[in-house]
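Notes from hallway chat w/ T.B., transcribed later so I don't forget. T.B. wanted the structure written out for a chain they're using in a teaching module, and asked if we could keep both sequence and structure tokens in one place. Agreed to drop them here.
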Amino acid sequence: MTLFDTSLFDKSRGPADEMPARPAARTAKKARKEAARAKARRNGLDERLLGPRPKHRKQHRTLFLSDIHLGTPGCKAELLLDFLRHNDAETFYLVGDIIDGWRIKRAWYWNAAHNAVVQELLRKARKGAAIVYVPGNHDEALRDYTGLNFGGVDVIGEAIHETADGRQFLVIHGDQFDSV
């Protein structure tokens, strides 16, 4: 240190050798985030979706999701994940063909975005949202599990949804009416 060292007058920080070491927890957290981003890039997930959750999410009474077809290359899982991160509801109805069992039987396709959608729905169930899964024709294997609950997701054959004004609607996938 010289006589004219200005660091003596800088009250915002001390000499370099007195700087506190970076907390190990913060460094480990940063390393985990970077590892998650790298894994997401390898698996084709848009890393912007790994950022912090939006502070202001739109709140709904009920949301209906249908024909997502997770397990297919054409599935828009990243768009759905973005939608789920920006919208909350008391009840989510998953109205058939959420997972495309037909396609998965022929050729397995499941990337990080597909996993992230499932994880986001399970997170919403843990936070108290009712998740009701009504299987369709592409996920018909789940019909064998009607009446059961998996991780907060109720699998049922059909539901009656009552609107805020008291009207009632039958919730089914509709493949029962296919002529094939």
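Follow-up for T.B.: The beta strands are 58-65, 87-95, 130-134, 149-150, 153-155, 159-162, 168-171. Might be a good example for the class.
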